[in-house]
Design a protein that fits this description.
- This protein has one domain.
- The chain is about 70% helix and about 0% strand.
- Helix 1 crosses helix 3 and helix 2 crosses helix 3.
Amino acid sequence: MVRHGHISKQGSVWVRWVLCEAAQTAKRHPQFAASYQVIARRRGKKIATTAIARKLLTRAYHLLTDAASGGAPH
């Protein structure tokens, strides 16, 4: 599913803050740097940082759900 628009203000303010802080470091990591640069050029640095935060959240979700179901991590 492709979503366009603002990030939701639903959910924990603390979790959003932690994800954005983690994204500040993750955007310099080789796994995220290329996608960060592409988004930053096209949409701006703040939106790119938020996109990296979402990627981190998606990875964390899959790691946790796979671990809970007994599957192998991605």
